[in-house]
Amino acid sequence: MIGPSGLAHPDELYAYVGTDRAALAREGRTLKGFGYSYAPFPAVEPSTLTDVRFALATLVLLPLGIFLSVCARLSAASRMRRLAALRLLGLSVKGTQRVNAAETVVAALLGAVLGLGEYWLLNQVMSRAGLPGLRWYPDDGALSVVTIAVCLVGSPLLAWLVSRKSARDATANPLAVRRTAVPRPPSKWVGLLLVSGLGIVCGFCATGLMGHPASSLGVNALLIVAGVVLTGVGLVLTLPLLSYVLARRVARTTRSLTLNLAMRRNEAEPGSTMRVVTSLVLLVYVASLAQGVLIQLEQVTRPSGSVQEYSLPLSGLDSRQQRDLTHVPGVDAHAVLMNSWADPHGTSGTDPAWETVLVATCAQLDRMTVHTNGCVDGKVMRLDNTDSSSGSYLRTGMSFTFRFRPDNGQDRKLNIAVPAERITYNGYSASSVDSAVLLVPPSALPSDARPRDAEILLAGSSDPGQVRGVLDRIAAVAPIAEIELVGLNVQGLEQITVVETLLALGMIMGLIIGVAAFLVSVTDRAVERRAQVTAVTLIGARARTMRAVQCAQVVLPLGLGLVLALVSGKLAESSYLITGGGAIRWDTAGVPLLVLAAAGVVGMAALGSLPLVGRRIDPELIRRD
């Protein structure tokens, strides 16, 4: 019995097939053990796993970093004023920092415990339900002691470090905090990160435009990762500066009261706007990278032709299985490839020892090639591929011998001579038909015998979903037959399914984290600005004007950030595709999807900013502080 310890996942199938001692004869060997202590075929190749780690780091870790920074700034203004009040009341600097640290550490420890419990529950549910192309045992996803210790110790420690840094201004200069001193404008030096990242990715894009694409070997592998990461981090850190510059210029030139109020607020607090729009801008940036990774993986694993062929040895199939395979749904054409036999003691040195012929009708040949010309049914004819020189050495009258195994009796031999008639055809880029030099009609073979060295060739659509379905149906007919996918690695086909699932899961996680960061920051911003909104409303501003102000405060810097994210994201994606060495270097097909996603982000941000202005005005909010 092969238990979970010997399988990678519940869907993995293994079978040990035995036989009689008499059938082994002298070729038998003593069995010493079952299985290996390692996986002969890893679920994901190390090179592919590197791409997945890189993609998931940008899809999940970057939005997670933004979310953590947003959470660290929750109620920052009110908390800073409260800590400054404690400091002014006489509490020492260390005492104030201890109060802040105690609050954040307890909250972080509680959050770590809840997170570990949530992961345990999700692991139990998802391992049993599974994901498309990916399943695992609950024990394989169980948390280790080291992971639990890192989460329970690392989260409170990180919260303690953040609390010390956040409380530094309130404890050092409490009067400035209480009097809401005007913050300093963002530093211009943060733009160097974005410029450096764009310089690297633009350099790789330039190599593709000049026709000499750079490879991903050596130092280029580090440079492409550095360029993508620097561009993403620089995009995040440059948003406050861009928001500040945009707000200042618009406020100076506009005559609109709405825009003036909105831009003056963004000019005074550009960091507040950054916390709201950064997560959404980053989502559009990482979506471009996800598209590039999927395109690169499809280029590696998907066949270049529109037809996918499956090859199975006839020696492992009986007559019924061979007949059933030709009627498998998804199989559009079938034929038999038959290899010749030559006596090793009687073959001359000038003639080839063996060759391959295709046993099929003209209709079958036409379905397995792009175009044929000159085919006549019922006759042995030469196959001449216009794109290949295979079989050019053949001479008319040259003969090849084929062996057949009848149901009863000794092996039979059949000699087939090379005719003068030719069939010219255009084949697919990856096809076993190219290895055949002759077309032999099925009527020319013995009806009561099967070829000894032959394989059945099936052809169908190359769509990955269709390929997986045909493989399952072939396995239902011949469970232990060895299937060779011509021009396609079956492990690669499984890997791209796993990778697509992981990337989809990462994009969903990144989307949830980004939306959560947006909602948290919008809610926190609404709570902190209630007094300011109330004051402006009491002066005489209408609720409709205030809603337009709050919407403009978010939409304008967000629009600027999204345009920059679209441009930088496509440049980063193109640099990744260029260094990957694939045929596709410029993903123009993915631009409309990103533009629609950016439009949806703008709409969601506009709707999320409306609740900042409440329906009921409470004047008490002005002096509650």
Helix tally equals 19
Query: What global shape is seen?
Result: elongated
Strand content: 5-15%
* Termini Cα gap: 71 Å
Q: Walk across the major sheet and give the strand order.
A: 4-8-5-9-3-2-11-1-12
Largest sheet: 9 strands, mixed
Structural class: alpha+beta
Structure description:
Strand 6 (399-406) and strand 7 (412-417) form a beta hairpin. The protein has 19 helices and twelve strands. The protein is elongated. With 625 residues, it is α+β, with helices and mostly antiparallel strands.
Per-chain topology:
Blueprint: H1 21-24, H2 46-72, H3 76-88, H4 93-129, H5 145-166, H6 168-172, H7 174-178, H8 191-209, H9 219-253, H10 257-268, H11 270-301, E1 307-313, H12 319-325, E2 331-339, E3 356-359, H13 362-367, E4 371-373, E5 381-385, E6 399-406, E7 412-417, E8 422-426, E9 438-440, E10 449-451, E11 454-461, H14 464-477, E12 484-486, H15 490-528, H16 530-539, H17 543-580, H18 591-609, H19 620-623
Parallel strand pairs: 3-9, 5-8
Antiparallel strand pairs: 1-11, 1-12, 2-3, 2-11, 4-8, 5-9, 6-7, 6-10
Helix pairs in contact: 2-11, 2-15, 4-5, 8-9, 8-17, 9-10, 9-11, 9-17, 10-11, 10-17, 11-15, 11-17, 11-18, 17-18
